[in-house]
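User: Could you walk me through two proteins back to back? I'd like the raw sequence and the structure tokens for each, with a short line separating them so I can tell where one ends and the next begins.

Assistant: Of course. Protein one, sequence then structure:
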Amino acid sequence: MALRPIARIHHRFVEVGDVRVAYRETEGAEGVPLLLLHGFPSGSHQYRRLLDVFGAERRLIAPDLAGFGRTETPDGFAFTFDALADVIEGFVDALGLDRFALYVFDFGGPVGMRLAECRPDAIAGLVVQNANAYLEGLSPLAEATVAERADVPGAADRLRGLLTLEVTRGQYEGGTADETLVSPDGWTLDQHYLDLPGRDLAQLALAMDYHSNVERYPAWQQWLRDHRPPTLVLWGIHDAFFPPAGAEAYRRDLPDAEVVLLDTGHFALEERLDEAAPHLDAFLQRLDAGERSDAPPRSDAPPRSGAPEEPAAALRIAVVGARGTLGRFVVAEARERGHEVTELTRSDADATDPEELAAAVAGHDAVVASVKGPDQVVPRAARALLAALPVAGVERLVFLGGGGSLEYEPGRRFVDSPDFPAAYFETARDQGAALQVLSGAQTPVRWSYVSPPPVHLVPGEKTGAYRAEARDTPLTDADGVSRITVGDYAAAVVDEVERGAFAGRRFTVAY
């Protein structure tokens, strides 16, 4: 077995005005460079393992922000987020970075967004890790911190509690499933730098300036809508400051963003690098391909052409609602591919009962849910599945949703239009509610929600020539028609079970 290339990492300084910026840089030269901006209370060392994984082939650059790590600032430096961004803009110039992917975490988010506003043409792609840009991404704890300003009596004394070893360690270990996977080197080194002379005043000034970031959220959201950078969102869902609603909110302005929710805390890479790295690698590969072809990289799975593919490993799949029309087609498609399928009907498990579901799906690799019925059974089933699957040890869920919740224009769903067929209204409404349940959940379940076309899900066999994309509007053909056969819809569902290309997202399929 050949040894993987090992990254060579340089630890350097560069002068940016009167600030001496410390940074780490790898020797890799392939593909788009990756600029990594760290968060509070850390420094570039928080990316040390990521540099090891990717740095042998790709150029990764991780600076210490002003007021952090080994970066040196002059007496009288004004610690504001505007000032930090100015330094990073000068740093980019000093290193000759004219086109790069930007990876932002925590404080790195507002610094990076300021940089993006100034240098939109430089941003080849965006990786967001627990870096918030939406009001719904602020927890009550974060809101209380944002309210602390220089003119608020006692603010500095209250904020000083954030600079203690107990809080620093808690930011690393809080929300993790296994604290032994979190290296104590991280929080120990952070505290060393926090305790340096003058660093407390720098951090207090930045904390009391954080409100300036929240005030710019609307402008940053507009920037995302205007520029639509290819985006990967990685988010530790047990973050005490930034709940996962902040991750999902990016889809509002970036419908094609890939959102990956990780069952860990604020410093997600400490415990879940093994899960995050494959998503980052695939994203960067797509960026490279897009840069080479001078076309926008895509964050979705490629269209199927019907060409033979290497068979996926056999999976154990439980299909809830296996006797319905769609369920039967999914069962047949999965078995045709060699998967082991358990057909579950009402007599086997109540789709709204978490305990019955957990018992029925235990031992499976994935669950496909095809549910409909009165009394809001669809959203109730979504909640029950999210409760049952972690208990049963099942990570993957593909939920067969409806096309009525797709939008015919931004913010306007087909189900809410005056001419939506009354016969399908209740089911379509409930399927939309199920999507809201899944999207708003803080869950380790890697769910995907698949919407067929809003009208033309028609009888027919599989052709293998359909398209699949993560989006909230229908896919249409050259004539503006959104259409797919039941056979191809079932094939797309099994594709998603095998690949998980749209985990944590709604996607739709059509020709």
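----
Protein two, same layout:
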Amino acid sequence: MNINKTFINSLTNTQGRAKELPDKDTFYRDSGLTGFGLKVSKSGVISFIYEGRIKNSRSRRITLGRHPSLPLDSAKDKALETQRLMKAGIDPVQHRIQQKQELDQLNAQHAVQQFTLRELMEDYFKYKPETTERWYRPVLENLFSGLLGRPVRAITAEDIAEIYYQKAIRENHPAQAKKGNRYLKAICNHGLRKEINGIGILDRNPVILAMSQLPAEESKPLPPKERFVNQERLFDFIRAIITECHETARDLLLFLLFTGVRDSEAKKLKWDKVNFHDKTCTVIAKRNKDHTLPMGPLIYAMLLARSTDQSPTGYVFSNRGNYSHIGDLRKQFRKITQKTGIEFSPHDLRRSYATYLEEDLNVSDSQISRLLGHSQQGVTKKHYIKSQATNYKDEASRLYTWITSLGDWSRDSGKGISRLDLENLYEGTGAVTPELSEIYAKFEESWSNDGAAYIHTHLHAFLYRNKILSIDEYDKHYLDDLFDLEFLEPYDDEFSQMTETQAHPTPRRGNE
């Protein structure tokens, strides 16, 4: 039987399958090329085959390919090649597998040679939390922008050392250079573990080689930073925050100083995480863990004052456009530095907070650690001691009391309005200074606009808005006595039911 196009067309329909389905697999063998033939399966699939004996081995039937995907001429060429391999004692199937493996290896080698640093970085981020990408990406893209598009295998230790010298020595930013190398080292370590068809992306870490070529002191990590706001300059620093910064920046910086949270944690604080009843707030700390901390008197007053004008975004410290949280505050930092000469960063305020607790208030290391939201080390602390930062409300209040004892930050002199000043003003005795008259006028104005009930329940917010920051001098019972508010009982739900007359009584002044 001569297997040609006419014969094949007589067997097939327009879809290239058998016109009639056989009861079992049927074979048609070519009379011209020994071993070459057709196979028609029970399902109607037509395939080209070759049958023969491997030299010094067994007979094999090899499927060459399907019709019509494989043309007849190509099928006969493959049959001749298969015949040649069998006569040479080579198994065609194993030969085909070996060829595919060799081709895959060549493709893999090419892919590895072309695999860029950016591709490796993106692959690394797939296996890491979003916070890692948020920290690493800007540093890597800024420091190694010239290397990201290059094949990672083509990046040499000399390339990395040159970038390090540029940033650390010439530009005098050793901390940024060391951080960049640390991040890049992690990316390259990932390349040591990643393979394409069994071929590793990297066989050595160029960052390690680069650091080994640097002087010994350059390969050492930088010592921990020690900068904080010295206690002797703390009054000047807080006073500058109040006088030089816009309202949101002022509140954010005071929040950082009085809570010790990280800058990013404070900026992303939302109102649904503020609990005025328990006097706590919850920030999203590292690894997306909740960190709940107590409010001291100042933070409670500040948040209460800010709560009257909440941003639609839900952020406590929103930006001016009210579409996100507040952003970069370096301009505000420079204003404070220009007035005080104090250089600082947001993390310096966190360090200051911890220092004040330890040096001035004798708070234990473990308590400070929990207030800062640090992970607990050791089996006992990690698995058995479960005290929370919210248990240390007294420490938060003591810190506030200690700082306010340095002076009233609402005035350059450091002398604010005391309880005695208000009593003298109320009784009509003592000197009525412009400052006392001003604060009394503000109190009367707020009383008229908001009502006594509002002032009674939001006293701390009233004092904060009017920059009477020594808030521990004042309490509701004291104001009850001073301004005849005895009729106000501690019932929150009934305030809305008060009459207009009850809500807006006229305060006594002096002996009037």
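The chain has 24 helices and nine strands.

Let me know if you want the two compared in more detail.
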